[in-house]
Amino acid sequence: MPEINSQEGELFVDIRQRLDKMENRLEMLETRIKMGEYRQEPEEDEVMMPGFSVNKGGSEESLLESRIGEFGLAWLGNIVLLFGIIFLAQYMSNIQQPLLAALIGYASVGGILALSRGLKKSYSYMSFLFGVFGQLLLFYVTLRLHFFTANPVIPWMGVGLALLITVIVLQLFMAARNNSEFYASLALIMAVTTAVVSDTTHIMFPVLALAGAGVLYLFFRFGWYRILIIAILLSYFIFLMWILNNPLVGNPFQGVSEHQYSYVYLLACAGIFSLTALIPRTEKFPDRIILVAILLNGFLFTALLGIWVVAFFPNDYIWLFISITLFCIPYSVILKRFSIWKYSPALYALYGFVAISITIYGLYYFPRAYLLLSIQSFLVVSIAIWYRSRIIIVMNVFLILTILISYLATSESNNLINFSFPLVAFLSVRVINWQKKRLNIETELIRNTYLLMLFFTTFYALYQAVPGPWVTLSWTLAGVVFFGLSLILKSMKYRWMALAGFIATAIYLFSIDLAKVEIIYRIVAFLFLAMISIGISIYYAKKLKQKQNVEE
Questions:
Q1: Contact (Cβ atoms closer than 8 angstroms) between residue 151 and residue 190
Q2: What is the per-residue DSSP string for 445-507?
Q3: What is the mean pLDDT of the chain?
Q4: Is the peptide bond before 286 cis (omega within 30 degrees of 0)?
Q5: What is the DSSP letter of 258?
């Protein structure tokens, strides 16, 4: 073997010693593991920032402290900086230096946005806040070029509004580039603020309508549904502020004296937000948002429309509701063809029918309007079949019951109107029963409601139309008709109505006719009711006997 010199020998010894130490350490670790004397690495949520305690009990307090220090103070610093620059610009304006104030403001905006860009990689949250407050400051400085200053830099409101709209467009560009609903919400607030400060009807509402259309596009493009709800609320709030003389800009709190064609913008705003029903389904927003937006738009529009009618058109509102009808009914047909939201056609059709009802009242007034309203109820049922809409059927039941109760409570009896209600009830229940599979109506509640209405309104109409001595006879005939319908239609419900009619007739005969009707009429009534009752009793006996024979 070759000889090993002294240096090589020392190297081998050193290596041997290191290996021995590693072996000893491994043995110690194995022993500790076997005895359970080891500590796992901290969980992810236990890892603390440098300088913080590692015990879990103190980690929450340390985390809270870090959040306040990083995020809370960041907000505080930016808010203080924003107001500091605003006060500086205000001071320069007060000393008759509006141009210098604007230059300082724009310079500050440039500096803040430069800081935002420079801190984007290392301090992302601080960069975000600088960007937000920089945009707000840019809008404020631009706003002060014409508005809220005694000595404006730009004396022409049109130019001032154009610059504000430019800032809003820039904000929308930032929102689209960063895919940020938050930036888009800032743009919406800026647009609404621009509309308010203009304090001019034909500038305020077009800007508001454009903002609504823009929000609808963003909802369609990016699925930003929160901003859609905010836009609906803000838009109708601004309409309310307008009719109160726009106190947001310091005007006295009072109602405006002229409509200034504001109703055109109100209708346009409602129409724009109604287009939500044409938005296709996507995973970008929950399905319920469409229904929420439609209902919210409808409720707020209805409330403001009522205010507009009371304030400006108390005696001349028919054309307004005709306009609503001409929009809602065709639009519901469009929705039935193109919208995937199955409830939307029914909702707009119902709103159109309500507008028709108000129009009928405005044309004919009560009680004559009740006749047309009852006929309209049957037409609504017929249209509901085409729409395959249970919603329309259910709402129409409430509508016809409301009309009936209102008529009985407030108007004098009219024979034509009295008989229109049982006729409409009978036709409605037959149509619903005929098309129940198309409507997918599984419950009998709706049909039973119409049948009860048919029963009571029939006897009420006869009571009002027939001379007193012949009421009993007419009610008996009504029972016979119901019994005949049960045979023709093979429906047990009409037999129950016939039996109930005979019982009601007997009660009326003994409680009223015996005391008031002449004896000759009493004889006729008793004999007729007796014959009918006995005849029907024989029918039931014969039917029961046939059933027993079949079973045997």
A1: no
A2: HHHHHHHHHHHHHHHHHHHHHS-GGGHHHHHHHHHHHHHHHHHHHT-HHHHHHHHHHHHHHHH
A3: 77
A4: no
A5: -
Q: Give the model's pLDDT for residue 427.
A: 85
Query: Rounded to 5 degrees, what are φ and ψ at 155?
Result: -75, -10
| Predicted confidence (pLDDT) at residue 42 exceeds the cutoff of 50 | no
Amino acid identity, position 165: I
Angle at 415 between CA 411 and CA 416, to 5 degrees: 100
How many helical (H) and strand (E) elements, i.e. helices and strands, does the chain have?
22, 0
Range 222-257 burial, b when 16+ CB lie within 10 A, else e: bbbbebbbbbbebbbebbebbbbbbeeeeeeeeebe
Question: What HEC string does 170-239 produce?
Answer: HHHHHHHHHCCHHHHHHHHHHHHHHHHHHCCHHHHHHHHHHHHHHHHHHHHHHCCHHHHHHHHHHHHHHH
By percentage, how much of the chain surpasses pLDDT 90?
14
pLDDT of residue 274: 93
Amino acid at 223: G
* SS3 call for 282: coil
Instruction: List C-alpha distances in Å: 131 to 137, 138, 269.
Output: 10, 10, 31
CB 225 within 8 A of CB 289: yes
Calculate mean pLDDT across residues 440-444.
60
Could you tell me the sign of the dihedral formed by the alpha carbons of 133, 138, 143, 144, in that order?
positive
Residue 290 has pLDDT above 60, yes or no: yes
Q: What is the pLDDT of residue 550?
A: 42
Spatial contact of 219 and 276, defined as CB atoms under 8 Å apart: yes
Please tell me the distance from the alpha carbon of residue 266 to that of residue 261, in angstroms, as a whole number. 9
What are the φ and ψ backbone dihedral angles of 77, each rounded to 5 degrees?
-65, -40
Contacts 24+ apart (CB under 8 A), 494-501: 497/451, 497/454, 497/455, 498/536, 500/455, 501/455, 501/459, 501/475, 501/476
Residue 277: DSSP 8-state: G
> Which amino acid would we find at residue 28?
M
Q: What is the 3-state secondary structure (H, E, C) of 503-525?
A: HHHHHHHHHHHHHHCCHHHHHHH
150-154 long-range CB contacts below 8 Å, 24 or more apart? Answer: 151/93, 151/96, 151/98, 152/98, 153/98, 153/99, 153/102
What does DSSP assign to residue 123? -
Q: What is the pTM of this model?
A: 0.70
Distance CA 434, CA 539 (A): 28
The CA-atom distances, in angstroms, between 53 and each of 42, 58, 61, 396 are 12, 6, 10, 68
Q: Which pair of structure tokens corresponds to residue 210?
A: 């454009």
CA distances from 236 to 164, 208, 222, 261 (A): 22, 10, 24, 16
Distance, in Å, from the CA atom of 37 to the CA atom of 422, rounded to the nearest integer, reads 90
How many residues are listed for the chain in this entry? 552
pLDDT tops 60 at residue 178: yes
User: Rounded to an integer, what distance in angstroms lies between the CA atom of residue 476 and that of residue 492?
Assistant: 18
Cα–Cα separations (whole angstroms), residue 243 to 88, 126, 194, 293, 301: 36, 42, 18, 24, 14
> HSE on the CB side for 407, CA within 13 Å?
28
Structure tokens at 167: 């800032």
